[in-house]
Amino acid sequence: MTTAEKAGPPILNPRAVPVVGNDAHLPAVDEKRLTAHALRQRFASPPWWQPETSGDGRLFEGRERMAASVLVPLVERDGGLTVLLTQRTAHLRDHAGQISFPGGRAEADDKDAVATALREAAEEIGLARQHIDVIGSLPEYRTVTCFDVTPVVALVRPPFELALDTHEVAEAFEVPLTFLMTPAHHQRHSFEFPGYRREFLSIPWPRPDGQREPYFIWGATAAMLRNLYRLLSA
Hints:
Blueprint: H1 3-7, E1 19-22, H2 36-44, E2 66-77, E3 80-88, E4 99-100, E5 103-105, H3 113-125, E6 132-137, E7 141-142, E8 147-156, E9 169-176, H4 177-180, E10 187-193, E11 196-205, E12 215-218, H5 219-233
Parallel strand pairs: 2-8
Antiparallel strand pairs: 1-10, 2-3, 2-5, 3-4, 3-9, 6-8, 7-8, 10-11, 11-12
């Protein structure tokens, strides 16, 4: 029996996994902490804090790990910061159709994790470096697909135009940071197999047209956002 079989099958339809609760008992991050200035200060001089999760990388422990980075783009809109997210195309091998940050695996000529995140953001969504102000990073996150991901956090200055790589990215959209930093919007899912239990978070976000199912932010992306919540609420 393989490691994957021992740990349980991958989650193919996360929307169908039962919701067992939300985290309305946790306070939202104070909006005064969600300004560009406050975020710069927090990352420059962080308090003691602990990430809620370091990953979901148990499923394929026997496989070789690969370094990767994502950009966590915080867009400076007049109404407050938003988080720029993408929906991956349905045909990709890893994380097809999922909501994610722009990013990908490190290449040999990338200087560091920041260089990987900036390169991937330029390649995937056409976000130009001149609009990006990197302010820090979150702890590495291990995924079930064997990536060790560094989330690089940056402020993004409008106006900018995106040019999506339609092979990898189906669409890009923005969600208010205040919404994402409110745990009452964080759903907890749980399911069990014999000898195995798995839990994960999701953060549904309504689509502007209101006609289709909400965007379903879950998995690694939701977990990284939850780690950001822990830093900003510490």
